[in-house]
Amino acid sequence: VLQAAPLTWQMEYDQMDNTIAIIGTACRFPASANTPEAFWERLRDGVDGIKPYPLERYDISKFVGDEEGKIITNEIATIDDIDQFDAQFFRISPREALSIDPRHRIMLETTWEALENAAIGPEDLAGSLTGVFIGISSGDYYKSMIGIPPRAGTGIANSIAPNRISYVLDLCGPSIAIDTACSSSLVSVHMACQSLHTRDSNLALAGGVNLILSPEVTVALSQAGMMASD
Question: What confidence tens digit (pLDDT) does each residue in 110-121 have?
Fold first, then answer.
């Protein structure tokens, strides 16, 4: 199962008793679980987020089949509106936004929502020792680009995902992308906790994001026997 699991935490270091508190969350998950409350409802009700490939992505019929070089399943888990982004809200030009990997955009949106969830004004963090730790690996958005846009280099670089958050919010703490494959989100939380304990950060934004936008990865996983036909 290939999963897009962008989940953002915020953690605050308590100098008195050395504890860490999760004070705000935001998320994007399949089955339109786009808030922590909606995510809990889907879990509680046993909602299945697996569905047929969306036709707007690509003609899946060309890739599904039993023969070699094909995907053995025609269903996936998707999250909503990955092609939607309020560029003006984040002071990004529409032209530049097209060069930005949707994973970067999702992290900007969920970070803002997590701060709202924590009742923190994003503008109040400017200049603060707030760290950003983002679990992010692979990436295939570049395959959809026509030519090489001027900002394609920074638009698709995994290392830039946390840097965008730090830049937009004017944060002065560590800004780190973590790639440990399936454990990337967990390691990002671990590193955020460490940063709070060592006081490299007073507040930390930690989470992870993953999107699979082209069929090649799923073809490879199918041929390696890592995908179930059902």
Answer: 999 999 999 999
